[in-house]
Amino acid sequence: MWWDIAPAVRGDFEHWHSHEHFPERLSIPGFLRASRWSSANGGEGFFVLYELEGHEVLSSPPYLAHLNAPTPWSQRLMPEHRNMVRTQCRVLESQGAAIARQVLTVRLSPASGRDAELRSALRALAADVAQRPGLAGLHLLRHEPPAMAATQEQKIRGLRDAGADWVLVASGYDPEALSALASAQLGEVALERMGAASGSVQGLYSLSATATPADTR
């Protein structure tokens, strides 16, 4: 997920997200890890990643129960999530670590008829990226929303959530290495050569908080 938070409410948001929202989500069976990342350039953007045991967790009764019964604190802050992009995904390719000092995210789509070509090229790139100095991993995700009605949390946000199609998440401990990857192999021209449609969206984020279920018990 990606969204913007205004500076006036950022402190309250980070307190809520770290000390109420993360523990709530990580109490749900099948949630393995939560991580929050803030814009590396000091902007208002956040990237949030939840890692799950399987796609079926997204439509599980415990998860739906939380989505439809937000706490008072959640109800107060949900409208502050601006420009929300919320994407439930399956993992297509994964090499290396997901958590490092920074992540580069790329929202993209395959060009018409080039899905297999793009996936093959990104699979080869992931194996290489995961071993490069300064980098830690590269992961390719594809949006696959579960069949479910709009939840109370979505209604509070005004049903304005956008979605990504495919998502690349590159992790690294050297910001310069990630920036180089963003401008070269994961730049728009290179991605189009691999089979992506034009219009990919990049973001560079620094780790803000991460937790596992054991951390929040």
Structural class: alpha+beta
Largest sheet: 9 strands, antiparallel
Can you list the strand order of the major beta sheet?
4-1-3-2-9-6-8-7-5
What is the average per-residue confidence, as pLDDT, rounded to a whole number? Answer: 95
Overall strand count: 9
The CATH topology corresponds to Alpha-Beta Plaits
What is the helix fraction of residues, given as a range?
A: 25-40%
Beta-strand fraction estimate: 25-35%
CATH architecture: 2-Layer Sandwich
Please tell me the total number of domains. Answer: 1
- At the first level of CATH, the class is Alpha Beta
Order of helices and strands: EHEEHHEEEHEHEHHEH
Keywords:
nine-stranded antiparallel beta sheet, 34% helix, 217 residues, 8 helices, Alpha-Beta Plaits, alpha+beta
Explain briefly what this protein structure is.
This protein has 217 residues and is an alpha+beta fold.
Can you offer a commentary on this structure?
The chain has one domain (2-216): Alpha-Beta Plaits, CATH 3.30.70.100. The chain contains eight helices and nine strands. The protein has helices at residues 7-26, 61-67, 72-77, 115-129, 152-157, 175-183, 188-194, 213-216; strands at residues 2-4, 31-39, 45-52, 82-85, 89-96, 102-108, 135-143, 166-172, 201-211. The chain has a nine-stranded antiparallel sheet with strand order 4-1-3-2-9-6-8-7-5.
